[in-house]
């Protein structure tokens, strides 16, 4: 049986910019019912205004009560979901080598958003996903989940956790109507890198990344490594130390 899921009703977390907003536009252009979510109503409404019919739900994935409220609002808009894209994410440069290490809020923000948030949203959305004849949960992982960038140590660890959770969730839901997908991006040109002095030189243009991600989803793939995301995935098994040195050279 084909794994391909029709577009239907799509919920995307962290869709006010970058990859989330880009995926929302792609699904909307194909006629899907798209619900975008995030923390900032003004930014979300600016995205929705460009795509008539797209709806906005406020949901802070790092706050379990906000997630419950958000999914209740989603359930009022649609009786089922065919796609959940767990995309919301933040990235921090954290330096543990200095005399004054990062404070508690900085230490856990990425864990709460990138990992705990993704798990919370997945659990809350599963009942709506199970109501569709075929559905999928799409996790936005990272090549850094396979080979860490040491200047973003907690971020990299959250993406390793996302990969591990994805593998277990896929195993648990095997044979169900819900497919579990991990997209493994390379560096993509989005505002995520705002804490770096400049966008990394090897960043993939957002549109090219979106083309490749949508192509993988349409092909029904469980894992969609894109560009250097694939290099990290394979290199982590074949030459982990060399790849770590390469990614962290000069730091
Ligand atoms: N760009 C890359 O190079 C790259 C590479 C690998 C993986 N990724 C992953 O791709 C995903 C999207 O990142 P991006 O590159 O598109 O960055 P981005 O443009 O900064 O987008 C991040 C989105 O997440 C939202 N967000 C942050 N915290 C949130 C929270 N607590 N609750 C709900 N939404 C929240 C932000 O919206 P508000 O701040 O308005 O709420 C924003 O819409 C992330 O998971 C990131 O780790 C990106």
Question: Topology, pairings included?
Answer:
Blueprint: E1 9-12, H1 18-29, E2 33-38, H2 41-49, E3 55-58, H3 64-77, E4 83-86, H4 104-130, E5 135-140, H5 153-173, E6 178-184, H6 206-218, E7 223-225, H7 228-238, H8 240-247
Parallel strand pairs: 1-2, 1-4, 2-3, 4-5, 5-6, 6-7
Helix pairs in contact: 1-6, 3-4, 4-5, 7-8
NADP nicotinamide-adenine-dinucleotide phosphate (NAP) binds near residues 190 and 191.
Structure description:
The protein has 251 residues and is of the alpha/beta class. The chain has one domain (9-247): Rossmann fold, CATH 3.40.50.720. The chain is built from 8 helices and 7 strands. The protein has a 7-stranded parallel β-sheet with strand order 3-2-1-4-5-6-7, sandwiched between helices. The mean pLDDT is 95. It binds NADP nicotinamide-adenine-dinucleotide phosphate. NADP nicotinamide-adenine-dinucleotide phosphate binds next to helix 1 and helix 4.
Structural class by sheet pairing and helices: alpha/beta
CATH H-level homologous superfamily name: NAD(P)-binding Rossmann-like Domain
Order of helices and strands: EHEHEHEHEHEHEHH
Bin the strand percentage: 5-15%
Lateral strand order in the biggest sheet: 3-2-1-4-5-6-7
CATH-assigned fold name: Rossmann fold
Q: How many independent structural domains?
A: 1
Percent helix, as a range, is 40-55%
Which architecture name does CATH use?
3-Layer(aba) Sandwich
- Overall strand count: 7
Bound molecules: NADP nicotinamide-adenine-dinucleotide phosphate
Shape: globular
- Spatial separation of the terminal alpha carbons: 48 Å
Uncertain regions spanning at least 5 consecutive residues: none
Largest sheet: 7 strands, parallel
How many individual helices?
Answer: 8
Rounded to an integer in angstroms, the radius of gyration calculated over CA atoms is 18 Å
* CATH class assignment: Alpha Beta
Summed over residues and divided by their number, the pLDDT gives a mean of 95
């Amino acid at each position: 049986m084909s794994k391909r899921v029709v577009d239907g009703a799509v919920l995307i977390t962290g869709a006010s910019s970058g990859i989330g907003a880009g995926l929302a536009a792609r699904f909307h252009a194909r006629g899907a019912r798209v619900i975008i979510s995030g923390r900032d109503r003004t930014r979300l409404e600016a995205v929705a205004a460009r795509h008539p019919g797209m709806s906005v739900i406020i949901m802070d994935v790092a706050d379990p009560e906000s997630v419950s409220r958000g999914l209740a609002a989603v359930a009022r808009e649609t009786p089922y979901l065919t796609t959940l894209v767990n995309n919301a994410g933040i990235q921090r440069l954290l330096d543990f080598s200095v005399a004054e290490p990062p404070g508690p809020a900085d230490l856990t923000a990425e864990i709460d958003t990138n990992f705990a948030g993704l798990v919370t949203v997945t659990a809350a959305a599963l009942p709506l996903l199970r109501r569709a004849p075929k559905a999928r949960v799409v996790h936005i992982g990272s090549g850094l989940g396979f080979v860490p960038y040491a200047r973003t140590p907690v971020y990299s660890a959250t993406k390793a956790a996302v990969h591990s959770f994805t593998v277990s969730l896929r195993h648990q839901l095997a044979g169900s109507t819900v497919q579990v997908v991990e997209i493994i991006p390379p560096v993509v040109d989005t505002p995520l890198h705002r804490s770096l002095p400049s966008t990394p030189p090897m960043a993939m243009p957002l549109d090219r990344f979106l083309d490749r991600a949508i192509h993988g989803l349409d092909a029904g793939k469980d894992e969609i490594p894109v560009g250097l995301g694939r290099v990290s995935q394979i290199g982590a098994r074949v030459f982990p130390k060399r790849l770590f040195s390469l990614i962290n050279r000069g730091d």
